[in-house]
Amino acid sequence: REQSLRRALQVKAGVSQTMSVDEEHGPCLKTFATLCVYLPAGMPTETVSEALALAPSSIQEGSGPLPRAWFLSTEGQVDSRDVRRHIDWILDRVAPSAQGLGGLQQQGARADIFCYWLSRNGHGGPTLSPRQTSALGMLQLDCGFDVYFGGESAG
Fold first, then answer.
1. Which residue from 32, 144, 131, 44 is spatially nearest to 82, judged by alpha carbons?
2. Residue (of 13, 11, 31, 103) closest to 73 by Cα position
3. What's the rounded Cα separation, in Å, for the pair 39 and 134?
4. How far apart are CA 37 and CA 68, in angstroms?
5. What residue ranges in 1-155 does DSSP mark as E strands?
6. Which residues pair with 37 in a beta bridge?
């Protein structure tokens, strides 16, 4: 699984050379992505940090209906309006700890990547590459989007 993941990612500090990335991504006003790891009862957030060898951007302690969660966000870390850059940033950091992520999932943690995407003018939309969808599948990560329209016209 790890070798297949490495091949799928072809980790070269970012996006594969075969993928065209538009840093300005015309239809997008703002985007970021977040790796979300939702913890089962009794699992401390430090377990995620240790398994992934990463520090979180934030922690949600959980109360009432909100689960405890560990987050790694590209907001303020990646300067691009192309969501592919943001997803690559997360995949590049998680891939070396694929076994750790799998272990967390086997212990009942639920993980996904969630993306915020604000449309500049109501046209276009986010794009994922085949390489990314392959890597997401190997890591057992769903990828969801919160898409908002009316960016510049709403302001």
1. 32
2. 31
3. 25
4. 9
5. 28-38, 58-60, 69-73, 110-119, 142-148
6. 70, 111
pLDDT band at 17 (very low <50, low <70, confident <90, very high): very low
Rounded to whole angstroms, the Cα distance separating 128 from 82 reads: 10
Sequence-ordered strand ranges (E) for 9-139: 28-38, 58-60, 69-73, 110-119
Summarize pLDDT for 123-142 with one digit per residue, the tens.
788 999 999 999 999 999 99
Query: Taken in order 118, 55, 14, 80, is the CA torsion positive or negative?
Result: positive
Q: Which tokens sit at 88?
A: 């690559």
With contact defined as beta carbons under 8 Å apart, do 83 and 114 qualify? no
